[in-house]
Structure formats: structure tokens, C-alpha cells
Amino acid sequence: MQIIWRKHVQIRMMERMISREAILTTLRQGEIINEYPDDTPCPSRLLLHWVNGQPLHVVAATCQETTVII
Q1: Stretch 2-24: mean pLDDT, rounded?
Q2: Do residues 63 and 1 lie in contact, with contact meaning Cβ atoms separated by under 8 Å?
């Protein structure tokens, strides 16, 4: 799977000191708490995972074999 990191998420990760590994772990193990099937150009979802006792929310859209971290 290819992952595209949008500029917005990269800025937020730096501001909040969130690692890429934390995001990737959330993608693999996080709980889907909302789905947006009508998002364009690809359906997206909101995931929640706890990292070091803190909640981490990640919005990701998947098109075929590519996931975009929003």
C-alpha cells in the first residue's frame, strides 16, 4: 500500500509532536469511529487509537492501493 502524507498532516504532526509510526499504528490498529463513503475523490474514515495514554484521531482516504492521510 502506498501512503501519501498531505502537507496539512505533516504540519500538524510537527506542531503536536506526533510520529509517523503513531499514525501508521493508528491506521493498522485504530478503531473506525466514523466513515465518510461519499467523500470525493475517495471514501474516507476517522480512526481513533490511544498512543501513550493519549487519543490520536486520524482521517484517511483510500483509493485502490493508495491511502491519503488527511
Answers
A1: 95
A2: no
